[in-house]
């Protein structure tokens, strides 16, 4: 065996083995001291990434379990308070039944009523003061509660706790629209024979320019079964003025009633704004004229049971100028069914136009009707104290126009959380060829002032026409949907105008029915755009079933409760079942009940039964959510357990294996050290050769 002194290869090998066994000893010591197999990314890069994701999931699941338990605590707090509210209502019902008994005099019932009123106050106190973690639970302000019950985003369970104060409890659950409609009549041009115009298939009767508007209304009331008529005249500003009057400036308003009598009002005195002017008009006209500011900042004037209103604005302060407008005839369907207007065998298109379909100045557009599908709608007078929304009284001056009602509701929207706006919906029944190219010219249709190009082609399906409308939705605010052979046009802007700017003889083949709108609908007519291949012949029919609407929207997401005054008929204000608005309700609340008479006690029993039903429903929903959360917690705990086991198999150290590795590394360390010492001594053997 050769001997070298410059390079000691056995020593180098022993050093390397010593370093290797030292690394194994360090790794085994680290794992045994930490209990983890992976202590740094170098130990297992993929395993570290997987274990970290599992750690995120496990910690998220564990927090979700705590969240669910917090949700159960909130629910149990609310449910406990509701149990006491139930006990209070049961006692109130007991007192109401006792008061309904005929043996008590007024003094006895007054004593019973005193306890009822105290219980109502306690009901409100519970609703106002019951809270969890600083949040009130039963006053209606809690809104949607979303519990994060998962380890990932948007894994939630949501629920709501409705208000259970006395203003809310006891109300019914019917949904409601405020409905109204109108048609414009040109009295000076009307000359009707007995069967010229039919409403719901019944003749309106003869009428000429010597008759008054009241005569026409009487004809409708007398001759048309199920339909009642009244009049309303509205004057809307086309631009916004300041409304500021100096001490010397005046505005003159002249109102002509249904029999032709005129009454003039001179509005004088200083005002500082358009709203001041509106308030002054309301005060100075003794309720005959109703003034309001609409959503566009314009002054709107309305007069019930009148045929004409004229405004003279010499100082241009109102934004209207010198303006005159005729009355709209309001037709109310007593049964809630649509109203159909048609001309009879002897009638002409002009008869329909003069009765309500009057030509405008642009593109042969005819102002159409707004007929209700409900009884007595939004044009009925809304008086002070008649209406409350979410417990807030709509204490505006007596209002008998849609504009006034919208303004009255929106004036208190901050308190109610409810806004009002108009809606429009037009349904067109289409069959056959819808539009066809005539004389090679390009067809187009005008909707809300925008020309929509139909490409000069023949259109035979509603889908193509709907697509053309929807391409212009951003400009017109109108969307179109196909419902079988019908085309549904919808808008939140309050009116839908259909017309044409084409000079060609565009034709609409088929019938136009079911047109729905806010206060007026515009349907093109005449040579440019007709409802048949030619101008309507004698005996033709225009059938319109129109619903005007005032839409209430909750800005908070909470249900809308509508409460009527004691002497207010819901049907008269249009607050009857119509389109579903989602939680709107009306009736008498617990706050309004008393048992001071037998009659009131009987009413109180029904109201309390409604209130108990509401609380029972709320408690049932909360109980269901509680049980659901119990199952959620069980499932989350199970998933967390299995995820922890999976992470343990990846991350945790196996002590049996690691102690064996430690023992091996320790032996190797000692052996390597001994061998290294011997290897380092080998070069010294050369010295014996040199002796």
UniProtKB/TrEMBL annotation:
Keyword RNA-binding: no
All residue ranges annotated as the Flagellin N-terminal domain in the record: 5-141
Domain Flagellin C-terminal: 605-690
Keywords: Bacterial flagellum, Cell projection, Cilium, Flagellum, Secreted
Record's subcellular location: Secreted; Bacterial flagellum
Chief localization: secreted
Gene3D superfamilies documented for this protein: 3.30.70.2120, f41 fragment of flagellin, N-terminal domain, Flagellar export chaperone, C-terminal domain
GO CC entries: bacterial-type flagellum; extracellular region
Keyword Cell wall biogenesis/degradation set for record: no
GO molecular-function terms, A-Z: structural molecule activity
One Pfam family it belongs to: Flagellin_N
Functional description taken from the UniProt entry: Flagellin is the subunit protein which polymerizes to form the filaments of bacterial flagella.
Family: Belongs to the bacterial flagellin family.
Protein name per the record: Flagellin
Organism listed in the record: Exilibacterium tricleocarpae
Lineage summary: Bacteria, Pseudomonadati, Pseudomonadota, Gammaproteobacteria, Cellvibrionales
């Amino acid at each position: 065996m050769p001997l070298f002194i410059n390079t000691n290869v056995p020593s180098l090998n022993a050093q390397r083995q010593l370093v290797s066994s030292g690394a194994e000893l360090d790794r085994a010591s680290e794992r045994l001291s930490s209990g983890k197999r992976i202590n740094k990314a170098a130990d297992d890069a993929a395993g570290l990434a997987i274990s970290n994701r599992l750690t995120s999931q496990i910690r998220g699941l564990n927090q979700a379990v705590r969240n669910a338990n917090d949700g159960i605590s909130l629910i149990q707090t609310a449910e406990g308070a509701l149990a006491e509210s139930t006990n209070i209502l049961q006692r109130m019902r007991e007192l109401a039944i006792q008061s309904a008994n005929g043996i008590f005099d007024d003094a006895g019932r007054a004593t019973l009523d005193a306890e009822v009123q105290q219980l109502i106050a306690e009901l409100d106190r519970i609703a106002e003061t019951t809270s969890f973690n600083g949040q009130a639970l039963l006053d209606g302000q809690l809104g949607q509660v979303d519990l994060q019950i998962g380890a990932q985003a948007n894994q939630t369970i949501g629920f709501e706790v409705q208000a259970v104060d006395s203003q809310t409890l006891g109300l019914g659950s019917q949904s409601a629209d405020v409905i109204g409609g109108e048609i414009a009549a040109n009295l000076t041009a009307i000359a009707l024979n007995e069967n010229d115009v039919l409403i719901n298939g019944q003749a309106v009767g003869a009428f000429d320019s010597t008759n008054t508007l009241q005569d026409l209304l009487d004809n409708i009331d007398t001759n048309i079964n199920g339909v009642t008529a009244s009049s309303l005249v509205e004057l809307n500003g086309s631009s916004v003025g300041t409304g500021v009057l100096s001490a010397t400036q005046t505005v003159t308003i002249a109102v002509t009633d249904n029999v032709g009598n005129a009454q003039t009002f001179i509005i004088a005195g200083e005002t500082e704004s358009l709203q001041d002017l509106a308030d002054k008009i309301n005060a100075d006209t003794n309720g005959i004229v109703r003034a309001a500011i609409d959503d566009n900042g314009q002054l709107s004037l309305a007069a019930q049971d009148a045929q004409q209103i004229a405004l003279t604005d010499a100082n241009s302060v109102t934004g209207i100028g010198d303006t005159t407008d005729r009355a709209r005839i309001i037709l109310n369907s007593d049964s809630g069914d649509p109203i159909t207007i048609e001309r009879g065998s002897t009638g002409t298109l002009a008869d329909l136009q003069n009765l309500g379909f009057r030509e405008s100045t642009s593109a042969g557009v005819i102002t159409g009707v707004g007929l209700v599908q409900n009884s007595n709608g939004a044009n009925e007078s809304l008086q002070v104290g008649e209406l409350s929304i979410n417990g807030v009284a709509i204490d505006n001056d007596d209002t008998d126009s849609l504009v006034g009602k919208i303004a009255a509701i929106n004036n208190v929207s901050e308190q109610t959380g409810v806004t009002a706006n108009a809606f429009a919906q037009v349904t067109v029944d289409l069959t056959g060829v819808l539009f066809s190219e005539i004389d090679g010219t390009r067809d187009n249709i005008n909707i809300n002032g925008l020309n929509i190009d139909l490409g000069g082609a023949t259109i035979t399906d509603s889908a193509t026409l709907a697509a053309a409308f929807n391409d212009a939705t951003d400009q017109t605010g109108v969307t179109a949907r196909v419902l079988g052979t019908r085309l549904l046009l919808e808008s939140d802007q309050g009116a839908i105008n259909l017309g044409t700017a084409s000079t060609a003889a565009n034709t609409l083949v088929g019938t136009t029915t079911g047109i729905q709108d806010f206060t007026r609908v515009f349907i093109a007519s005449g040579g440019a755009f007709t409802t048949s291949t030619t101008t309507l012949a004698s005996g033709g029919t225009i059938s319109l079933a129109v619903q005007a609407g005032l839409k209430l929207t909750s800005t908070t997401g909470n249900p809308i409760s509508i409460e009527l005054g004691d002497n207010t008929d819901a049907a008269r204000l249009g607050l009857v079942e119509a389109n579903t608005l989602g939680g709107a309700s009306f009736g008498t609340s617990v706050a309004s009940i008393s048992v001071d008479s037998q009659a009131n006690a009987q009413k109180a029993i029904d109201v309390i039964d409604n209130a108990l039903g509401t609380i029972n429903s709320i408690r049932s929903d909360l109980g269901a959510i509680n049980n659901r959360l119990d199952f959620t917690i069980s499932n989350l705990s199970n998933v967390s357990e299995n995820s922890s086991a999976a992470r343990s198999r990846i991350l945790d150290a196996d002590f049996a294996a690691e102690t064996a590795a430690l023992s091996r590394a320790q032996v190797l360390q000692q052996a390597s050290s001994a061998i290294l010492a011997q290897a380092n001594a080998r070069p010294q053997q050369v010295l014996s050769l040199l002796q």
